[in-house]
C-alpha cells in the first residue's frame, strides 16, 4: 500500500447575490443564513490528476483498487473561541451541527479569477480595502468572461441531484462541533476519480463543496453561520488535496505489502513465496498473466501445483501451507514458476529454493520475551535535501540487540512520515507496513506529490504484544525541482 496526493489546480469561492470574485483567498468561507435566509456561498475547484493519470498509463496503478479521500483543514482547529462564541469580523457565527456536501456539475471551461473577499470597514480608508476585491470571473453568475454558468452558482439547489444530470452528489459529511476537517470519502467519489484516470477529460471539471440544500434554503434566520477551510493559496502544509490509497493487490481488501516467507518457511502455517520481475533498468514489469508454480520436495518429486497471483507490479506470489512431510526438518524444497509469459513471449522456467522449518509456534509453560531490535535507515541521509519528484528505495535494517552486524528480517515493521507545524505533527503517511523480501526490509518513497518541507520518519515494530516506537529515526527535506 502507498499514498499519493493530488493537489488542487484551481479553486474559488462564489457568493450568492454577489459578483465579487474570491479566487485567491487563502481561506474559503462557506456560510448560510442571514436575515430571512437565502444567502450562501460555495467553494468550487478542480484537481490536478496529471501524475496519477501517468501512473495509470504506465500500468503502475489499477483504478479498480484505488480509493480516494478529499481532505481540507478547518481553520477553527487553531482557535476554540471561534466556535459559536462571538461573531466573526463579518458578523457571521461559526456553524455547528451541519452537513456539507461534495458535488459535481456538468463540465465547464471556467476561470479561477484573481480577487479576494475581505470584510470592508466603513472608514475613511475603505477604498484601500476595496482594491483587493474583483468582479472578474469566475463568480456567482459567470464561468469565464464570455460565458455564464448554466445555472447561477453552478447548480440549482431545488433540483434533486442525479447521475448524469445537472449536478451529482458525490459525498456528504456531518460536522458535530464545526471544527472538524473535511474528509470526503465515498464509493461515488472513488468511481468519479477512477473514471477520470481511465478517460481523462479535456475540458475543465467543476467540483464543489457547500452546505446541503436544506441549509442553503433555510428561512427565518437572523444570523449567518459559517465555516472556514484552507484553500490552495494557504502557503502552508494545510493546502487541500485528494489522498489516493494505492493498493494494487488483485484481491480487494488485502494490502499489497510484500511479506516473503522464503527465508522463514514453517510447517503448520500459511507461508507466502514470491517471484520478482524487473527489466534491465530495474523497473518492475508485469506478465501477461500469473504463471503456475510447481512445488517439488528434496527428491525432485512434485507435491503441489498452484496458480500464482499478482500482488503488485513486478511481484507475484503463492500462499502455501504444509502440515505433514516425510522428511525431517529442516529440509529444502523448490518452487518452479512455469513458462512465464511477457508480451506474448514465453520465458524460461524459473526455479527457486526454500527451506522448511518447524518453528511456527512455541507451546509450553514459559512465556516468550519480546524481540527488541535496533533499527537503522539507508537510502536516505540525515538532513538530506531531496528534489521533489525523486523516488527513493528506503532500506530499514534490523539488528539483534548488543550486536553491530547481525541483521535479521522482520515481518512487522511499520513506518510513518510527518511534518511539524509549530507543536503539531501533521501526518503525511500513516503507519504503513514495510516490505520484507528474501534479503531486505524496504519501502519506496515517491516524493512527486510531497510539498517542499522538512519531514520526519518514525519506525514501529510489535513483538509478543509489546509495541516499540522509534521516533525521529531520520529527518530530511524535500526541495522544489524548479
Percentage of residues in strands: 35-45%
Major sheet: order of its strands? Answer: 7-6-9-3-1-11-4-8
DSSP, total strands: 31
Helix proportion range = under 10%
Structural class: mainly beta
Q: Low-confidence stretches at least 5 residues in length (pLDDT < 50)?
A: none
Output the radius of gyration. 28 Å
Q: Which geometry do the CA atoms define?
A: elongated
Q: Assembly type of the shown chains? A: single chain
Largest sheet: 8 strands, antiparallel
**Mean pLDDT, rounded to whole units?**
85
Count, helices: 4
Distance between the termini: 29 Å
Number of domains: 3
Question: Quick gist of this model?
Answer:
The protein has 482 residues and is mainly β.
Describe the structure in your own words.
The chain is mostly beta strands. It folds into three domains: 2-246, no CATH class; 265-357, Macroglobulin (MG2) domain (Immunoglobulin-like, Sandwich), CATH 2.60.40.1930; 374-479, Immunoglobulin-like. It has four helices and 31 strands. It has helices at residues 50-57, 126-130, 187-198, 213-216, and strands spanning 2-15, 27-33, 41-47, 66-72, 93-94, 98-105, 167-175, 182-184, 206-211, 224-230, 241-246, 265-266, 271-276, 292-296, 302-307, 309-312, 315-320, 331-338, 341-342, 345-346, 350-357, 374-378, 385-387, 391-399, 407-408, 414-421, 424-433, 435-436, 441-446, 453-463, 466-479. The model has no long low-confidence stretch (mean pLDDT 85).
Amino acid at each position: 500500500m502507498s499514498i499519493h496526493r493530488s493537489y488542487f489546480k484551481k479553486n474559488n469561492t462564489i457568493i450568492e447575490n454577489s459578483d465579487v470574485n474570491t479566487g485567491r483567498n487563502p481561506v474559503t468561507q462557506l456560510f448560510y443564513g442571514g436575515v430571512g435566509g437565502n444567502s450562501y456561498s460555495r467553494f468550487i475547484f478542480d484537481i490536478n490528476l496529471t501524475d496519477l493519470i501517468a501512473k495509470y498509463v504506465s500500468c503502475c496503478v489499477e483504478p479498480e483498487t484505488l480509493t480516494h479521500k478529499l481532505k481540507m483543514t478547518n481553520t477553527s482547529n487553531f482557535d476554540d473561541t471561534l466556535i459559536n462564541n462571538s461573531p466573526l469580523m463579518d458578523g457571521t457565527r461559526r456553524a455547528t451541527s451541519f452537513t456539507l456536501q461534495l458535488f459535481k456539475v456538468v463540465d465547464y471551461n471556467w476561470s479561477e479569477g484573481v480577487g479576494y473577499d475581505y470584510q470592508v470597514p466603513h472608514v475613511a480608508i475603505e477604498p484601500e480595502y476595496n482594491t483587493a476585491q474583483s468582479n472578474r470571473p469566475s463568480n456567482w453568475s459567470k464561468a469565464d468572461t464570455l460565458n455564464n454558468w448554466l445555472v447561477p452558482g453552478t447548480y440549482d439547489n431545488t433540483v434533486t441531484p442525479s447521475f448524469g444530470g445537472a449536478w451529482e452528489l458525490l459525498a456528504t459529511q456531518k460536522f458535530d462541533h464545526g471544527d472538524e476537517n473535511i474528509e470526503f470519502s465515498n464509493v461515488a467519489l472513488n468511481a468519479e476519480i477512477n473514471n477520470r484516470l481511465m478517460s481523462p477529460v479535456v475540458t475543465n471539471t467543476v467540483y464543489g463543496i457547500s452546505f446541503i440544500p436544506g441549509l442553503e434554503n433555510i428561512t427565518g434566520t437572523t444570523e449567518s453561520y459559517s465555516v472556514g477551510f484552507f484553500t490552495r493559496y494557504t502557503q502552508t502544509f494545510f493546502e487541500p488535496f485528494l489522498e489516493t490509497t494505492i493498493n494494487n493487490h488483485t484481491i480487494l481488501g488485502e494490502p499489497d505489502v510484500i511479506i516473503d516467507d522464503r527465508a522463514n518457511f514453517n510447517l503448520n502455517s500459511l507461508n507466502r513465496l514470491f517471484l520478482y520481475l524487473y527489466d534491465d533498468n530495474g523497473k518492475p514489469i508485469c506478465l501477461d498473466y500469473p504463471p503456475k508454480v510447481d512445488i517439488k520436495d528434496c527428491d525432485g518429486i512434485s507435491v503441489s501445483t498452484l496458480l500464482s497471483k499478482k500482488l503488485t507490479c513486478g511481484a507475484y506470489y503463492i500462499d502455501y501451507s504444509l502440515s505433514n512431510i516425510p522428511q525431517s526438518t529442516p529440509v529444502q524444497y523448490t518452487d518452479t514458476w512455469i513458462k512465464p509469459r511477457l508480451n506474448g513471449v514465453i520465458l524460461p522456467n524459473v526455479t527457486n529454493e526454500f527451506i522448511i522449518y518447524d518453528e511456527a509456534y512455541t507451546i509450553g509453560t514459559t512465556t516468550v520475551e519480546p524481540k527488541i531490535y535496533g533499527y537503522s535507515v539507508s537510502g536516505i541521509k540525515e538532513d538530506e535535501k531531496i528534489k521533489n519528484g525523486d523516488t527513493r528505495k528506503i532500506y530499514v535494517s534490523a539488528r539483534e540487540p548488543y550486536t553491530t552486524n547481525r541483521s535479521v528480517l522482520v515481518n512487522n515493521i511499520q513506518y510513518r512520515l510527518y511534518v511539524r507545524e509549530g507543536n503539531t505533527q501533521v501526518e503525511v503517511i500513516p503507519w504503513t507496513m514495510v516490505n520484507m523480501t528474501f534479503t531486505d526490509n524496504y519501502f519506496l518513497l515517491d516524493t512527486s506529490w510531497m510539498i517542499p518541507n522538512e519531514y520526519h520518519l518514525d519506525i514501529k515494530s510489535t513483538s509478543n504484544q509489546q509495541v516499540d516506537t522509534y521516533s525521529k529515526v531520520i529527518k530530511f527535506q524535500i526541495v522544489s525541482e524548479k
